[in-house]
């Protein structure tokens, strides 16, 4: 069941996302209507090149919408100044350029940047948030480890810890489980679900691991053609949306086992 909260929602109506090249609009997705609420773990899925990252960046306010507006807690996201926005919404991008020479503690401390003074001095409260984020992601034993010494799964957890230290109500993640084995994929998704439920946050993650999130997330956004459909996983399964998600009819979906198969 999708939890419904009044505040800190991410909302858009008739949104079009895409790119403008020499004045020409390239629409990737259009007519998108979403109302995403705190306390939910939400997955955004779709085939390669369907527009997941483009939509995520637009919802985060990093990319201008071609039509419509994104509202963060009833305010236009583009009208919120960057420092205020970074106290409400954090973004975890896997391919972001980050110095892996930083220790886990130093990386997670970067999450406090919106709150520190220009010298970057950490207060006791900042330190408490950092340690709490490290505890929540079970990285206590790696606090002083350099990021280049971490496995991909541990590094992914450190990036999530940085977003937790940022203490935002909304966390958006772009493919946080790429390159991870099944065990580590499961542990990241379970962690995200736990954070959404126990800390009452809105967590929206793009993923290709559809079968995993079908059994874990509260709400899914499925990109279909140039728009998207959103509902609970069970309602989406019943609607038959996964049966022809992939092109060329090569992949089918078994509604009983909730698994894809090759036709
Ligand atoms: N800077 C850009 N200018 C023009 N078109 C772009 C740009 N970046 C991406 N695109 C196009 O937008 C479409 C959606 O890309 P996007 O990266 O959002 O898809 P995706 O669903 O995240 O893909 P994947 O699953 O492969 O990561 C693609 O057709 C891509 O070629």
Automatic annotation (TrEMBL):
A matching Pfam family: ABC_tran
Record key words, sorted: ATP-binding, Nucleotide-binding, Transport
Keyword ATP-binding in record: yes
Any GO MF annotation of the entry: ATP binding
Entries under SUPFAM superfamilies matching the protein: P-loop containing nucleoside triphosphate hydrolases (SSF52540)
Classification via InterPro entries: AAA+_ATPase, ABC_transporter-like_ATP-bd, Metal_Ion_Import_ABC, P-loop_NTPase
Native source organism of the sequence: Leeuwenhoekiella aequorea
Entry protein name: Iron complex transport system ATP-binding protein
Domain ABC transporter intervals: 10-250
